[in-house]
Amino acid sequence: MSDVPLSATVKSFLRHETILAILLVVVLAILSQQSDKFFTTANLLNQGRLMTEVGLIALPMTFVIITGGIDLSVGSILGLCAILMGVFWHNLGLPLPVAMVLAVLVGGVGGLVNGLIITRFKVPPLIATLATLALYRGLAEGISQARSVRGYPDWFYVLGQGDFLGIPTQLWIFVIFAIIAAFILGFTTFGRATYAAGANETAARFSGINVDRTKLLIYTAAGLVSGIAAVIFVSRVSTTRSDMGTGVELDVITAVVLGGTSIFGGRGTIIGTVVGLVLVQALKNGLSLSGVKGDGTIVVIGLVLILAILASNLFSRNGDG
Amino acid sequence: MSFEVSARRVVFPSALSRTLSAYGQELIILTAIVVLFVVVGTIAPRFVSQNNLTSIFVGNAYIAVAAIGMSMVIISGHIDVSVGSLIGVLATISGSLAVAGYPVWIAWLAPILVGMVITSFIGVLVAYVKIPSIVVTLGMLSILKGGLISATGGAWITNLPPDYLIAQFRLLGVPSPVWFMGILTILAAIWMRSAAFGRAIYAIGGNPEAARVAGIRVERSTVMIFAIHGMFAGIAAILFATQLQVIQSTVPPNLELTIITASVVGGVSILGGIGTVIGSTLAAILFAAIGSSLIFLNVSAYWLRAVQGLLILATVLADMARRHRIS
Question: Lowest-pLDDT range, B164-168, B192-196, B308-312?
């Protein structure tokens, strides 16, 4: 009974991802022509390092957007967790591993609060997370009072600056998280509940899916992962500041939406998000290597976002009739 | 006789609740503003001095003006996250024209027209090509922001001609930004309440299909809503550009969020409401007053965003509770 719509859905996934993959290949080909520094192992691995924080947060954000929601507060949670890790360790004198775990847990609590506001009080996600965006960033700024924390022990920098088997440490973390996320979304009842909640919430409720619990878990995960991203961020740049992660939400949402996840909910894949993420990072890096100023690359990314969605809209409309 | 009394009993609460549902959000914000001014004014009398009031209203009027257009966009069921970048671009265009020696009316008119062209383009992509507005404006945010910094390098525009600085004019002793904020808010509120097109904005946001069946041309109206939003962004850009002697040609940080927040807190939450534009203007004033009051209460400015966040949450939750009670 569900064979026909399911295969149609699979086709539409393939269609967007195919377009995106072709686009990625074309972009990589052009960029490698533009600069011989682009297609070197060292450069590509370094780019993997730079995209990890956005990439990590983009994974739960894919779930969030598939449920038809949005989370604008992830960048602020990142900033708050980074500050708190520094405060727990530097000011309160806790051992650094404990401080790291506590900071990540605070991220989870931040996400849980988002989820509660959205599910219990029925506040639209855009508005709820707009409020917590300001709140969490304000807490980070208020707690830090513009002071930064530096001087972390050497072992801590392994996370953000070290290698494992020749690959940047955080890239391993990202790949593992991406595989787990793809598995959960594609092969578990939780994944199916996520799609169902986004495609038709009322229908999902009637078919016995606990929509509120599903959303609560997803927003909590988004907070937790933002906390993990914060720890990696601090390790990568060696310092803690309250403005960390400002604007990250837009990068994350760009990667997810570029990857074919529908902002209306019910549609999207982790693999699409990963391709979207790589495309954005390749453009940023390749263009700046070929001499385009940093701000010019932002323009191109905006254009690519609109054009990619435009192309996939046109194709899918032709296909669905 | 007894029937009339009982009828009046029924009518009175429903009229009250209708008033509450129509103006509840505005009343909450207005109360918050009054309480804030009374409390902070008692603790620190200089808070309600002429100088400080002027700086609160004049320095933030452009946010209220931009929030009028944003409210229309949000009520119609869309959003524009690029408006901060747009205002940055338009302010730069306006200032550059003024410095280049063009007549001031061109420097005032150009940002309004350019703003309308850009937002109309957004509206076309949203309405006819069916790309979600958050995606279009996310892309537009990158394009405008990147384009502006690439073109200008964030340079300062100086030597602005004095007759161009419209935000520094006064009429009857009241600074012009306050006039702009007040008059535009009242006009927009009346227009949205009584004009057919104003009603159509609510209809489209409430249920596009029903609006279509009712004979509203949803696509064309959506483009027009975005165009009107661009007009307000243009006016806001002029007020922003002319409030000081110089313009920094970059995008003011967090501006889009401040504008969206003002609309959301004051405007978007009322079901088929009336006077939501008044709500967004009040919310913009409230935020400005809170920012200023922290200074007078000797609270570190670093806590400002946290206070704003709590305030948004409180208003939104109060609104949800009120709506629950009415329905």
Answer: B164-168
More confidently predicted of A5 and A193: A193
* Contact residues for B303 (Cβ-Cβ < 8 A; gap 6+): A138, A141, A142, B294
Q: Provide the mean pLDDT of chain B.
A: 81
Alpha-helix residue ranges (DSSP H) falling in B242-300:
255-263, 276-296
In chain A, beta strands by DSSP E: 163-164, 167-168
Distance (Å, rounded) from C-alpha A41 to C-alpha A100?
31
Q: Above 0.95 for ipTM, yes or no?
A: no
d(CA A281, CA B255): 26
Q: Is the pLDDT of residue B237 over 50?
A: yes
pTM, to two decimals: 0.83
Cβ pair A134, B261 in contact under 8 A? yes
Question: Can you say whether the dihedral through the CA atoms of B96, B102, B108, B109 is positive or negative?
Answer: negative
Q: Are A181 and A60 in contact (CB under 8 A)?
A: yes
| CB nearest to B150's CB, from A131, A135, A299 | A299
Using a CB-CB cut-off of 8 Å, the residues of chain A touching B149 are: 295, 298
Contacts of B320 in chain A (CB under 8 A): 121-123
- How far apart are alpha carbons B286 and A79 in whole angstroms? 26
**Chain-chain contact of B309 with A136 (C-beta, under 8 angstroms):** yes
Residues of A in contact with B317 (CB under 8 A): 117, 121, 123
